[in-house]
Amino acid sequence: MHSRDIGAFAWHALTGYTTRTVLMLMAMAIGVAAVVMLTALGEGARRYVAGQFASLGTNLIIVIPGRAETAGVSPSTLMGETPRDLTLDDAMALTRSYRVRRIAPINVGSADASWKSRSREVTVFGTTNELLALRHWTLAKGRFLPDTDIDIASPVCVIGTKIRDELFGSQPALGQWMRIGDRRFRVIGILGSEGRSIGVDVQETVMIPVASAQQLFNTPSLFRILVEARTREAIEPVKQFILDTLKERHQGEEDVTVITQDAVLATFDRIFTALTYAVGGIAAISLFVAGILIMNVMLVAVSQRTAEIGLLKALGAAPRQIVALFLAEAFLLSSLGALLGLLLGELGSVIVRQMFPTLPAYPPGWATLTALLVALTTGLLFSLLPARRAARLDPVLALSGR
Q1: pTM greater than 0.70
Q2: Where is the ABC3 transporter permease C-terminal domain (predicted)?
Q3: Residue ranges per domain, the chain?
Q4: Which phi-psi region, left, alpha or beta, contains residue 153 (left: φ > 0; alpha: ψ -120 to 50)?
Q5: Whole-number Å distance between alpha carbons of 235 and 261
Q6: What is 95-121 written as a DSSP string?
Q7: For helices 319-355 and 261-304, angle between their N-to-C axes, nearest 10 degrees
């Protein structure tokens, strides 16, 4: 019996029982589609988080005043001490390493912003010209903060688009003087970027020079210092440089917390990868359920086709050929069901991406390949029992329908 004959026999066996075949196809297809869609959602969540961190900047290191304690209350807290301030001089000291590309000191506060009769409360970012490139932001109009010494308090500002719309309406904002707190600032730029920074909508912020922010809020301290390393490999050396430099400047006290972007991203990556594996494994259970359905249906098929099997054996078909016929039928059924499930899963992923454009729900290649292999394997494995049972039938008894 040739391979072409085995394939034709399997195809006619499937098309001869349309309802049974469709039910088994749908069972296998649903299992594969579930694996593809759920892993696509998990991978999409992982990529979304990675994209959000990438928008924060490349090779980013964040310096925070105060040391993170792992054991509850620190001795300095019991003594009523507060973390040492980060200053502009500290920020400038961090530029002395050739591995540091740029820095951006940040001061954050809220103040009332007004123009003519319109006013609202805004979040004010005190920073420098380097923040635009460090955070990969873009401008809609105008220019960003001037590239001057960080201790120069220039009366200029860059505003988000929502601030522009709410305060200036249809009037041009560039070149206008607006009041922030008790000071006046001239609008020189409008941010075009969207998203959130430190939990604040970028479109609802006002950027001013960091020295101006220190005067506005009457504080010499900084909220954060953002540092960008030149390469990914330089992140750890730069982190150690920051700790050593600030420890030396703060009388030997290691009183800052340094967070690397890679460390945070790696944590989220591990979480979402584990989640993807988990939901993929849960969905894969439906493939085993489909395999059991194939086994049960094929066991019924053996009893329904007893006479047919007996005729084949009477014509000289060997037991291994009978097994091959049933395995070919299961392979064909599993292949068609897996391909149908793959199409359904891809279609579902497209629908998810259309409904949630920010979620890159693309199924990972390993999940698609694994779903196909598991579908084929379960189909073949669970068809072995019916195939062996058919091969052991006595041809005389089978021809008589017993």
Answers
A1: no
A2: 282-395
A3: 3-53+266-399, 84-254
A4: beta
A5: 9
A6: GGSTTEEEEEEEEEEEEEEEETTEEEE
A7: 140
